[in-house]
Amino acid sequence: MRNFLLKPWLLLSLATVLGTTACSSDGDGVVLFSIEDDIALGDKVAAETDSTYRAKGQLLERNSTNARAYQLLDPIVNRVLNSGQLAHRQNFVWDVKIIKDDSIQNAFASPGGHIYVYSGLIKFLDNESQLAGVLGHEIAHADRRHTSQQLQQQYGISLLLSLVLGENPNQLAQIAAGLGQLKFSRDFEREADNYSVAYLNKTIYACDGTAGFFIKAQAAGQQSTPEFLSTHPDPGARIEAINTKAGELGCKGRTVDNSAFLALQKAL
After folding, report:
1. Cβ 152 vs Cβ 31: under 8 Å
2. What's the pLDDT at 27?
3. In a domain, 99, yes or no
4. What is the DSSP annotation of the chain?
5. 195 within some domain
6. Residue 183 falls inside a structural domain
7. pLDDT in the model for residue 14
8. Rg, C-alpha atoms of the chain
9. What is the pLDDT, as a whole number, of residue 229?
10. CA nearest neighbour of 141 among 109, 171, 100
11. Which entry of 118, 121, 146, 201 is 20 to 30 Å from 13 by CA?
12. Which pLDDT does position 5 carry in this prediction?
């Protein structure tokens, strides 16, 4: 059993003491609770997210009916995860689930490495490198603990730790429902873009895959761009930054057999 539960009387004091030795820092900000608490919060948020989409009939379970889709998706995710570039590869659970909604081109991740991708995103993309790039972006948000930091800023450390303790179920449901629309800071989005390039650099994929999605979305004239693309900096600046980073690493323009990706699209 993980030793992550904090005594309730500690919540208020931890929320108000911002520079203590109990703090841990990842990415550009500070997360005021431990990796273990991050994992526990992510598990609870993911369970609530699963329950919400299961009730709607949109969660593609890992069963015989959907086995083919996950057989094709998992290797893409694992190539990114096993790039050797993640800080918390061994700490977080790193599972991926598909939400069946062809009208939404989005993906998101909870704290602790639970990743969700909409069928609409997979069907919208042109190739496997683009999907790997978008997944890399979301993996970076979880691995750099951006999601935890953004939730901490929005809801406060005391509330988040109460969720870890099993309190405030209504608030947990609200957080889970809004996770896909969570707005990250300019620095967090830029860092996730950069890490996506770094992750893909160590794989078979073209490391500017995320930029490919930006370009396709702009060309399609999308009216409602996914949250991780619509927040600042603007998509044009992000395309340029990704291409610059990819050029520096020399990992642009790689071609990958697209047959498995096309099979994934058909399986959905």
Report:
1. yes
2. 47
3. yes
4. ----PPPHHHHHHHHH-TTSTT-EEETTEEESS-HHHHHHHHHHHHHHHHHHHHHTT-EE-SSGGGHHHHHHHHHHHHHHHTTS--SSTTTS--EEEEE--TT---EEE-TTSEEEEEHHHHHH-SSHHHHHHHHHHHHHHHHTTHHHHHHHHHH-HHHHHHHHTT--HHHHHHHHHHGGGPPPPHHHHHHHHHHHHHHHHTSSS-TTHHHHHHHHHHHHT-SS--HHHHSSSPHHHHHHHHHHHHHHHT-TT-----HHHHHHHHH-
5. yes
6. yes
7. 39
8. 18
9. 52
10. 109
11. 146
12. 39
What integer pLDDT is reported at residue 30 of this predicted model?
53
Residue 130 has a pLDDT of 96
Instruction: Match 């109460």 to its residue by tokens.
Output: 162
**What's the whole-model pTM score?**
0.85
Structure tokens at 192: 């996730």
The domain of 173 spans 23-267
pLDDT the model gives residue 32: 59
**Is 15 contained in some domain?**
no
What is the reported pLDDT for 31? Answer: 55
What are the residue ranges in the chain where pLDDT is below 50? 1-25, 27-28, 223-224, 232
Q: In 156-176, which positions are buried (b, 16+ CB within 10 angstroms) versus exposed (e)? A: ebebbbbbbbeeeeeebeebb
- Based on the structure, what is the number of domains in the chain? 1
What pLDDT shows up at residue 6? 41
Structure tokens, 52: 């919400």
